[in-house]
Amino acid sequence: MLLKVEGLVKSFRGQRVLDNVSFELKEGEVVSIFGKSGAGKSTLLRCINGLETIDEGNIKINGEYLYRQNENFIEGAKGETLKKIRQSIGYVFQSFNLFPNLTVLDNIILSPVKAYKLDKEKAVERAVKLLEKLNILDKKDCYPYELSGGQRQRVAIARACVLSPKIICFDEPTSAVDDEVKKSIADIILGFKKENMAVLIVSHDKEFSYSISDRIIKIEEGKIIS
Amino acid sequence: MEYIINLFISMKSGMFVTFYIFIVTLIFSLILGILVAVLRLSKIKMIEMAVSLYIFIMRGTPLLLQIIFVFFGLPIVGITFDRYTAVFIAFILNYAAYFAEIFRAGIQSIDKGQFEAAKVLGLSRFDTYRYVIFPQMLKNILPALANEVITLVKDTALVYVVGISDILREGKIAVNRDATLIPFLVVAIFYAGFIYVLSNLFKNIEEKFEYYR
Questions:
Q1: Which residues in chain B are closer than 8 Å to A110, comparing Cβ atoms?
Q2: CATH, residue A167
Q3: Which of A39, A107, B53, B94 has its CA 20 to 30 A from that of B25?
Q4: Chain A residues closer than 8 Å to B212 by CB
Q5: B119 to chain A: which residues are within 8 Å by CB?
Q6: Is B110 within 8 Å of chain A by CB?
Q7: What phi, psi does B158 have (nearest 5°)?
Q8: Which superkingdom, per the lineage (chain B) (predicted)?
């Protein structure tokens, strides 16, 4: 099991936005978390990526606890364990959050070189392969502002994949994109599935979610309803 | 004309003093300012409060008073500094507070998503600031930073209060000696020239940062 979420509870100012959420994700599985705006989908994804602390429950990623429920408190992963977890999960933000001051190539190699001390040449080699696969190698020296929305998204995907994660998360991958881009995102996701990666998608796009996923998790007011 | 050229030559030590105070203050207050800005954004309440108090005191009282306090006030409690050390302490502490507020505003102007992206990519806090936040922040704050640096050039004239012979003091001596206001004109040309060079320098830096949007 690559991802295991158990009894996850998260509140903001006393209001529960995630209420006893539990689910699992296996290798080669594409799962969509589907629900209306404000249902708690993005918060769930943020918790899984360690961007939010949790109030109760456990989150286990690739065999390591990101958050672990102890008797009275939640223990969060630290140091090398956290680094290992971060290496095994990639996150493609809804607004991509590319670094505008860095070129496409530098956006992709920054983390492997600086955070994971990978040899720069090897990092560039990996980045080039990914960009080639995503059909944007010709943009490697461009800055994010020079790219279209679809190209930026592909750079964000390359950045999230450069460390060969086992899980990749997408937050609303089809918001504000045309049908052609939507199709290319679907192809990319299916490509990940073929490589035995697990894909977790948060979306309110019913058609897309149903067409691409092995499993749909419906969420309403912070609770999984099916 | 010859008189003006001679004045420039005779006031060169004052020019050097002004430049020396400017450059030392600038270097150290920028470094301290970055540290103070990062501490000001600390989630630890005590640190944030202590840093806010320091900034309030520095910005809430005149620099002239701070120089007087360090040079004439501290010896009362047994802490003595020579003129230059006292001036540098007052200037650096004062300007670091102003720079810190500019840096803080610059850091806070960066989209939260940039910090989050760096976090999920496993970047350390230092690398996040070094490669992502500071370059973007610098682009945003350059106009405000340029204003403050220009003010610093003019504020160096305050060192007269501890008897340091900067360009303005030397100009004043020449005015009294020669019974003419021309030395003040020379002083004005020096300041304006210095600020012209700095303004152009900042303009060039701003242009360098135009490589991205």
A1: 121, 123, 131-132
A2: 3.40.50.300
A3: B53
A4: 100-101, 143-145
A5: 50-51
A6: no
A7: -70, -10
A8: Bacteria
Q: Which residues of A touch B (CB under 8 A)?
A: 49-51, 82-83, 86-87, 89-91, 93, 95, 97-102, 110-111, 114-116, 143-145, 159
Q: pLDDT tens-digit profile of B113-144?
A: 999 999 999 999 999 999 999 999 999 999 99
Q: Report ipTM for this prediction.
A: 0.93
pLDDT tens track of chain A, all 226 residues? Answer: 899 999 999 999 889 999 999 999 999 999 999 888 888 999 999 999 999 999 999 999 999 999 999 988 999 999 999 999 999 999 999 999 999 999 999 999 999 999 999 999 999 999 999 999 899 999 999 999 999 988 999 999 999 999 999 999 999 998 877 888 888 889 899 999 999 999 999 988 888 888 999 999 999 988 888 7
| Closest Cα in chain B, distance from residue A150 (Å) | 18
A83 CA to chain B: closest CA distance, Å? 6
Across the interface, whether the CB atoms of B131 and A100 are under 8 A apart is answered no
Chain B positions touching A83 (Cβ under 8 A) are 122
Please give the residue of chain B at the shortest CA–CA distance from A113. Answer: B123
> What CATH class is the domain B17-167?
mainly alpha
Work out how many domains chain A is built from and give that number.
Answer: 1
> CA-CA distance, B170 to B164, in Å (whole number)?
10
Residue B92 backbone phi and psi in degrees, to 5: -65, -45
Range(s) of the domain holding residue A185: 3-224
**Distance from C-alpha of B8 to C-alpha of A178, rounded to nearest angstrom:** 68
Sign of the dihedral through C-alpha B100, B106, B108, B112: negative
